[in-house]
Structure formats: C-alpha cells, structure tokens
Recover the amino acids of this structure.
C-alpha cells in the first residue's frame, strides 16, 4: 500500500462529508437569513390601499386646492410617486403631462372618457365617472363613483359615497364604499364591502336600499322577547347541536332551534326557520322565504333561494348562488359571504363583505 | 425477524404519511375556509394567558393583546397567574389598573400544572369562545379575529394558529427549531387541514369553544399534555379542530440544548400518555371517517417512532451479524428514514415549508437538522423508556405529581417593537 493512501482516503472522505454541510456552516457564519419569518400584520381591512393612498396624498391637498382655484395643472413628487395635480375641469387624458405619472389627483370631479385606458391611480375630491369601456388601474373617490358600461378597474376602487356599477363593468381586486355599492346586470367583482350592497335591474341606479327589515329579522326579534333569551345569538352555549350522518332536511314552515351539522346535504324547506347555524359536508339548499339565523358553512355549493334571509356568515368551499330577493346580513350586523365563486341575481340586498376568491358575478 | 419486519412497516407507513402531506401542500388543493371572514357579528371572547413566573415576558403579550384589532367591548383578558414568585403579579396588576378589559386571576393554591390553572380560570369565563396563549407569545393585531373566525362553523370545537419563532438568530439550536416549526405547521398541520384529517390543538395560539369543553368534562388536570388530550377528547366527542395557517404568532424557542431536551421529553411523555388513554377509543369511534381515524391513530403514535427507529437499527445490526436476511434496499431506505420521528418535520417537509415561506437561504441549514433529530430521537426514546419503567414500578401513566415544567425563557426585556418591525405591512408592497 502506498504511504499516502490512508491520508488520501481520509481527505476524500472528509471532503465528501464536508460538501453537504458547507452551505449550512456558511449560513450559520454569515447569518444571511436569520431574522424571524415576517408574520402578517394585515388587519384585514378592505380599505387599506385606499387609506394608504389617502394618507400619502394628504400633504398635497393644499396645493391641489390652489390648483383648483387657479384652474391649473401642476406636477409633484412625493415618496417616490410622480403625481399630477389637476385643477381644471376639462383635463385631457391625451395630454403629454400624463406621461410617467403614477397618480392623478383631481381637485373636483374626474371624468374618464369612453374607451380610455388610464395606467395610474386616480384620486378625486369629487365624483369619479368612468366612460363606457374605459379601464383604470385604481381609484379613490371622496364622493360617488360611477363605472360606465363595460368599464374595468384593475386593482382596487373605493368611494367615500356610493358606487354604481353599470351593466358589464368589472372590478378586479378590492371594491369598497362607505355608503353603498349598486351593481347592475353582468357586473363582475372579486372582493367587495359596503354597509349596503344592492343588485338592481332597473335603470334607476339612484334607488335607495329598502329600509324595512326582512320578515325573518322582525320575527327573530319577537321570538327573542317571547322566549326571554337571545336565540338569535350565534354564540350561545344553550343551543343544542344536532349532528346528522347523511342528509338533513328541515320541513317547510317549521322552526328549529339548533346548530345542525350534516355529513351530507342540508336542505332548509320553504318558509322554514333555522335559529342556529348549518354546516354541511356537501351542498346546502335554502328554499324560498326560508331563514337561517346562524352561519352557513358548506363543503360544496350554497343555494339561497328567492326572498331567503341569512343572518350569519355564508362560507362555501365551492360556490354561493343567491336568488332574487334574498337578503344576507343586516345594516346593524353586517356579515361575510366567502366562496370560490359567487353569483347574485338582481334584487338582492347584502350587508358587509362579499369575497369571491375566483370570480363574483351579477346575473346577466 | 417478525419484529424487525413490523418495525420496517411502521417506518414505511410514517414515511409515506410525511411524503403525502408534503406533496399535498405543494401541489394539492389548499383549504383556508375561514380566512376570508371580515365582517361578522364578532362574539364576546375571553383571552386566557397562562403565566407562571413570567416577569420577563408577560408585559409583551398584554400590550399586544390590548392593541389587537378586536372590538374592545367584546374582549376580556384574564392573565392566569399561577402561584408566581417573581414580579409577574405586580406587572399584571399594573396593566389591569390601566385597562379595564384586563381581569387578573391570581392563583395561590391548588393542583400544579397549566391544565389545572386553566380549569380554575374557566370559572371566571362567561363567553362561549375562549382563546389561550402562553405568556411568551406575541400576537399580531389581526390574530384574534383569525382565531375566532372558525367558531362560526358550528362543528369547530377548537382552533390552532401557527407558531413562528422570534429568537431565530440567537443560536444554531434556535435556527434548527425555526426550520422544524416551519415544517410542522406550514406543511404538516396545513396538510391535515387540507385533507380533513386531524389538525392538532397545540395549547397556545389557540381557542376552544366553552360548550364543547364543558361537554367533554373540561380541562384534564391529570394530563401531561393538555393540548393533545383535548384534541382527542374533542375528536371522539364529534368536535373538529381547525388549523389557521395565517393566524401567525411569535414565540420564543429554547436557546440551550438542555432546555430543548426537557421540552421534548415533556411533550413525548404527554403525547404517549394521550396515546395510552385514547388509542382504543379513537379506533372504535363511530363518528370518524376512515382517513380521519387512521390519521388520528398515526398522530397518537408519532412519539413512539423514536424508540421504534432505534429498535430497528439495533435489530438490523444484530440480524446482520447473525447472518439473517434483513432485506434489500427497502430495509436500508426504511432504516434511513429517521425523519419519520415524532412531530418533528421530515427534511423534505422542511424544504417544502422553507419554499412556501419564501425563505431561501435558511434552507441551507437542512443538513444540520440531522443533529437536532438525533438529540430528539434519544430524548423521546428516553422519555418512553422512563414511562415504561415507571409503569412497571407502580407509577402508572399520569399518576406522577404534575408541576409547571415550563420552558426556560431567554428574553429579559420587552421586545415587542423589535419583533413587529420585521413584518413589513403587506399593503405597502402591494401598493
């Protein structure tokens, strides 16, 4: 045996062992990725983007006011953003001034011409109006916002007043309003929130939400008084739990005070009332004029029939289909609809958040 | 030889289980059914903070909870100060004076242990939803809503959030534990949630429905691991545990190996105790689906895989030298699958978790996890041996005197601001 053979074998073996741990030892030494994983600090508020833009632009409002008074357009830079302050009414979106701008700040109303594509965020002290077929990146309106037919907002949209979505308009990402959102036929959305969300099929887009409470909500209040306990409370420990292997059906017109869990389908019959929540591993069907005072949790598709009422959250792993006249949540107790797809007929009133992870649409 | 084959079979089953979870997490359909819940009639809740001599950390969690994004009038915070002998009481009372939502519970006697302390504290709880934190955790603003959201599902009895180590960069050990936690939560727990199996209630960053707890007889003060105990009692009673991967919360992991060894030994003993108590009832429970039942049984046995693996190695050596056939590549593969041990994430789970978390450089530490696994292997095997030994000399499982065997804290001053500065707001990037 050659005298250097043991040394060579030892060296080669050591090298082979060292190869896989070298990057590890390097990382231990350099500490390139040694900080804690970032946890989400997102508070879940849909208006966050709008709030951040509002806060960032706040220092420019006096200057915007001056532009408005003097009917002029000026350019400003703020925190890496190139901003155009528009104080005149007849601003042309074909103007070369718009080149390289990330945010357009209007001192009063902003009117996007039909067919125009605006690759910038828009802020307006007054109403925002999108012409037919126009496209906008994102917008914050301090008043009402009106989306014309077949117009599109690509990232987010918030209005301090009301939002009107004309037929065929689409809002990707977040859409929110401090007062109401009214959607006409064939509109599409993903994530929206407002105290009142109305789907309408008339030309009267200024229609107000119906002030009267749904018949079920009124009956719920009466029952609470008569029973002397809070049956409408979704988190009461006194409500029994009814677990069913297979399908569950609540016959038409009957009332049940229980939380229902079914490994099959849940079917709430016409005019029936479920005072608790319903959980189904498969589909859930709520027939015409039936009411669910708790939550609806579903492993499949939820179908809410005409003039139904659901007080609590509606969470489906597949789709939520809402028929004409249904009402979900109430102005004083907004709630959430969450699923992969949401399809809403005209004539519905929703209160709170609708989150369609893939696509939400209004019936054409 | 039969024993050797059984050992190989068990190792193969657990290896396949971990691969299945990893592939599900990487390529399967992900379930986060409650994460979108924004608007709701949020219920009144009680937050219990388990604290025993926690003067170094208790201020951080109370400050974080006070700043949490949850309706003020619907939240009561009860720091459960269990017979602390340091300044814990003084710190809690100072906070309580300033914040009416804090209602301290100072326990001066009774049975030792976290479960016993929580059991006593439950007499003060008036709400249906109860959230539980250990004192060294630092919840983010949105965490409470995220933990409460699953309770709108009437089938959910308990909720578990994700634990994220805070003191990662301190030592080699903390970096290894960070990887292990990532694999365990990001892949293992979430895969079980995806597949409708048995996510585990972890006892902190967690919540429980009061009526469900009452139905199963409350906290088991004789349980060494009250979290595993609760998971199985709820499961057998028809309640589900939900895992919320995005309900993330910082924790402090052990910085010294002896502390880690004590921690893992305690977990192993508690888990094994739960296995003895619930394995038969889980196997016979009629309300469980087959996959759920199998996963429940496998989860109960995870800490037994340590001694099983050691036994397999020993048998392989003995059989080899006695000339008995020990099989070919499959046997070698099975015996090399050391990462099926316990709830410690397998190396491929850790790699998948690091990818999912978007942390690319820490994955370089993967080869060093072998060292951590070896320590854990020996610790849990020793724990199992101790339990067998104690049972044979008359001290049956669970009959030992319970103590607050809490993990040593290395934090000496509040770190809340530092911790949160690492988390860049999502919205800023998105804008």
């Amino acid at each position: 045996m050659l005298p250097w053979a043991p040394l060579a074998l030892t060296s080669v073996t050591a090298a082979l062992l060292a190869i896989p741990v070298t990057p590890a030892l390097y990382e231990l030494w350099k500490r390139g990725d040694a900080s804690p994983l970032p946890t989400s600090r997102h508070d879940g508020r849909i208006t966050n983007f709008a709030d951040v833009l509002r806060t960032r632009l706040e220092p420019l409002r006096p200057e915007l006011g001056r532009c408005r008074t003097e009917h002029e357009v000026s350019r400003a830079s703020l925190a890496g953003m190139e901003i155009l302050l528009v104080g005149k009414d007849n601003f042309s979106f074909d103007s070369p001034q718009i080149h390289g701008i990330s945010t357009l700040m209007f001192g009063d109303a902003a009117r996007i011409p039909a067919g125009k594509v605006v690759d910038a965020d828009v802020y307006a002290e007054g109403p925002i109006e999108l012409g037919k077929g126009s496209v906008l990146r994102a917008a914050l309106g301090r008043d009402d916002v009106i989306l014309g037919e077949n117009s599109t907002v690509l990232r987010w949209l918030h209005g301090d007043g009301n939002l009107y979505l004309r037929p065929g308009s689409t809002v990707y990402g977040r859409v929110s309003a401090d007062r109401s959102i009214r959607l006409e036929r064939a509109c599409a959305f993903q994530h929206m929130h407002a105290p009142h969300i109305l789907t309408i099929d008339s030309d009267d887009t200024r229609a107000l939400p119906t002030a009267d409470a749904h018949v079920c909500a009124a009956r719920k209040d009466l029952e609470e008084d008569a029973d002397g306990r809070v049956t409408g409370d979704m988190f009461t420990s006194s409500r029994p739990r009814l677990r069913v292997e297979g399908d569950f059906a609540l016959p038409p017109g009957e009332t049940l005070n229980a939380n229902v869990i079914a490994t099959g389908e849940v079917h709430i019959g016409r005019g029936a009332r479920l005072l608790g929540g319903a959980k189904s591993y498969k589909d859930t069907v709520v027939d015409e004029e039936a009411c669910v005072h708790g939550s609806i949790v579903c492993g499949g598709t939820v179908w809410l029939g005409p003039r139904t009422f659901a007080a609590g959250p509606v969470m489906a792993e597949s789709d939520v289909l809402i028929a004409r006249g249904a009402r979900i949540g109430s102005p004083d107790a907004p709630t959430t609809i969450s699923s992969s797809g949401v399809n809403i007929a005209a004539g519905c009133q929703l209160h709170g958040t609708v989150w369609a992870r893939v696509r939400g649409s209004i019936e054409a | 030889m039969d024993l050797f084959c059984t050992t190989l079979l068990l190792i193969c089953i657990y290896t396949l289980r971990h691969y299945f979870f990893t592939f599900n997490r990487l390529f399967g359909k992900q379930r986060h059914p409650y994460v979108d819940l924004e608007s709701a009639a949020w219920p009144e809740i009680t937050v219990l903070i388990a604290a025993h001599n926690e003067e170094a950390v208790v201020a951080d969690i109370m400050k974080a909870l006070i700043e949490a994004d949850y309706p003020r009038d619907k939240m009561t915070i009860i720091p459960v100060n269990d017979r602390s002998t340091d300044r814990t009481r003084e710190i809690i009372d100072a906070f309580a004076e300033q914040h009416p939502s804090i209602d301290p519970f100072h326990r001066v006697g009774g049975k030792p242990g976290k479960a016993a302390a929580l059991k006593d504290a439950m007499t003060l709880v008036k709400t249906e939803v109860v959230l539980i934190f250990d004192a060294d955790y630092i919840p983010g603003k949105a965490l409470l809503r995220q933990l409460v959201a699953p309770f709108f599902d009437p089938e959910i009895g308990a909720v578990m959030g994700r634990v994220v180590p805070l003191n990662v960069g301190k030592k080699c050990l903390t970096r290894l534990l960070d990887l292990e936690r990532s694999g365990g939560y990001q892949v293992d727990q979430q895969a079980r949630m995806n597949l409708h199996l048995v996510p585990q209630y972890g006892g902190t960053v967690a919540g429980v429905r009061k009526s469900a707890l009452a139905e199963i007889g409350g906290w088991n003060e004789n349980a060494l691991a009250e979290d595993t105990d609760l998971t199985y009692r709820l499961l057998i009673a028809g309640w589900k545990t939900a895992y919320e991967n995005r309900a993330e919360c910082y924790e402090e992991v052990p910085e010294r190996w002896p502390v880690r060894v004590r921690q893992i030994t305690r977990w192993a003993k508690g888990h094994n105790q739960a296995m003895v108590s619930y394995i038969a009832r889980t196997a016979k429970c009629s309300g469980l689906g087959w996959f759920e039942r199998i996963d429940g049984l496998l989860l109960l046995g995870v800490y037994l895989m340590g001694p099983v693996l050691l036994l397999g190695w020993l048998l392989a050596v003995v059989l080899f030298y006695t000339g008995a056939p020990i099989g070919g590549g499959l046997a070698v593969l099975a015996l090399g699958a050391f990462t099926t041990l316990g709830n410690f994430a397998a190396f491929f789970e850790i790699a998948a978790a690091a990818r999912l978390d978007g942390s690319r450089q820490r994955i370089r530490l993967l080869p060093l996890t072998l060292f951590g696994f070896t320590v854990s292997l020996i610790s849990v095997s020793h724990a199992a041996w101790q339990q067998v030994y104690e049972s044979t000399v008359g001290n049956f499982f669970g009959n030992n005197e319970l103590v607050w065997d809490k993990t040593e804290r290395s934090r000496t001053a509040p770190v809340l601001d530092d911790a949160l500065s690492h988390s860049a707001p999502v919205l800023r990037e998105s804008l």
About this structure: Helices of chain A lie at 5-30, 48-57, 61-70, 215-227. The CA atoms of residues 108 and 125 of chain A lie 5 Å apart.
